[in-house]
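Exercise: predict the fold of this chain.
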Amino acid sequence: TAQSDLQYQFDIDPACPINYLAAFKLDVTADGGYTDSIFFDLMIGQQIEDFESGGFAQYPWVQGGSADWSTVTSDVYEGTYSAKSGNITHNQNSSIELSAEILSGGDISFYYKVSSESGWDYLRFYIDGNEQEKWSGEDPWTQVSYSVTPGTHTFKWSYTKDGSQSDGSDCGWVDMIVFPPLRIAPEITTASLPDWTFGYLYSEQLEATGGTGAHTWSDKFDDLNGTGLTLSSGGLLSGLPSVAGTISFTAVVTDASSESDEKQFSFDINPDVEILDDSLPDWTQGRTYTQQLNATGGTGSLAWSDVNSDLDATGLSLSTDGLISGVPSTNGLVQFTARAADDVGADDTQAFEFVINPSMEIVEDTLPDGIVGEEYSVQLTCSGGTGEKLWSDKYSSLDGSGLTISETGLLSGTPLDEGPEGFWARVEDETGSQVEQYLGMQIRGAYICGDANSDEAVNVSDAVAVINYVFVGGNPPDPYEAGDVNCDETVNVSDAVWIINYVFIGGDNPCDTDGNGEPDC
């Protein structure tokens, strides 16, 4: 007895039809004049499902039951993958099935394995709903075969459990299914194509199941011409979109038996992302800042970011939806770069800078006294803040006093009554930031400048009254300003000299320091 192992390789004419049954004769000779002939047939383009695609996309499989089957690498008959039933519990099942047109009579064969509660939980095989066989317990990989007549048939594998108990791995496996000659028209399974953004590389693989042999794809009406996109014979739609707008085309998939399917696709090429804002408003420290950035174009939602994290430590942040917000914690120039990116990676950036001004502060904390019946005018000032500032009398305390405060901060009018006067000054800037300060003053009765003794005339006795006040502790002028004739904000001997010059030698009027006939204090 002798044994010889040889491998044979032969070529198949491309014109040979799929499912052609080729007859072979193998002549064997051996020393001693021994000869023999072996006759066998091989199906050209034999159709198998070995799950080596890593899934169930090669044929139009239908999943059923309480859990889907999956492809696994942990337990296979041959190759890398096998099909394994889903994870189910009592009184449940997990199944896969395939419907196809059988072209001529033949056998369907496959390898199965089962690990289950013996006599209760089964891996079952059906043809057209009729159970052919079932297996339970611990069965290793085993090949089985069943006769199939021409026509349309449905093949189903189902793992079923009874109402209690589980043993083994509690599942079934199937591998290396060999079909009789069959025809399953190809079917395009890609449901839709994603929208995209102008100027960014597009690459989407179209998918189809069924058919015989390799699939060949085409753009039926050449609608992709001029779009920057092409559909390869392998079904890859790719390229750099050269136009924005809606793209529509009809994809055709054809198998080796010239069976085909077609499907129309439409998707949008959106304009590139563009940030619309190029400036941001200045603001005031300590005042809540809220500004929405805006952009157009792109595909899907836009995600915003602070490219270099420059807003860190400023009290501000940029949210993913483009909102700049927070309470500025420092003053000075803020600079950052905003980025808006869409779902496909298209983006735009924009550099921004704006100023956070110091918090507002009213400079004045007191006011000069006023005189009943005389015009009063003081310009209030405020440091810090942003833009134009509006002043107001918070509680309208000046009503009826003869004084008002304008929006520009001018406190003016003619005081009506003698006595203390005061109000809460409030100022607000363009950001809504506010500051308040209580300001008080004394409103004195009317007086004649130089009338130090209050006799309603200016004469030598007023000079004497000043001298007495300065040198011997006499009564001060009432009001005090009446004795300050040279407007130096104090009463001393120089004021007495001014009065004497005015009375006796025609000097300048009291309080007229520049000699123009108008009082200067």
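Check your answer against the key: The helical segments are 460-471, 493-505.
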